[in-house]
Amino acid sequence: MEARLNLLGNPVAGKIIKHLTGAGRAVLETELPASTQELVKLRASQINGCGFCTDMHTKDAVAAGESHQRLHLVAAWREATVFTDAERAALELTEEATRIADGAGGVSDEVWERAAKHYDEDQLLALVTTIALINAYNRMNVAIQMPAGDYQPGQFG
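and the corresponding structure tokens:
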């Protein structure tokens, strides 16, 4: 499989990705746990069917010390006992924010309140930004049919 566009070699794509990556680096400077960020990126990528990002964030999470068991259970987080209440709230927010078109009204007040119990304002902003950025990357990669499987941890950073 070959991508429809060369995101890694196109100068315009390079400028766009540079800015998206800059926003992602700002999130890394917050107190939102890195493990939560990876779980969120993985869950949104699963929902959006983005093989490239699913591959990337699974491998990056493992390289950062995340367990295979937890990663295997991200898609079934509601039934899994391996996630903290804070992580569960982040995953629930991720699902509602990723599936905006599926729900009348977007993110419900109840879901937001559950997340706000575990994260302060800066962390909530980082969480929402992480969700928005991964959804942007997912949509780009799905649209151009970016092949998955060859990513190496840390390849882009």
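(Above: one complete record from the training split.) The mean pLDDT is 95.
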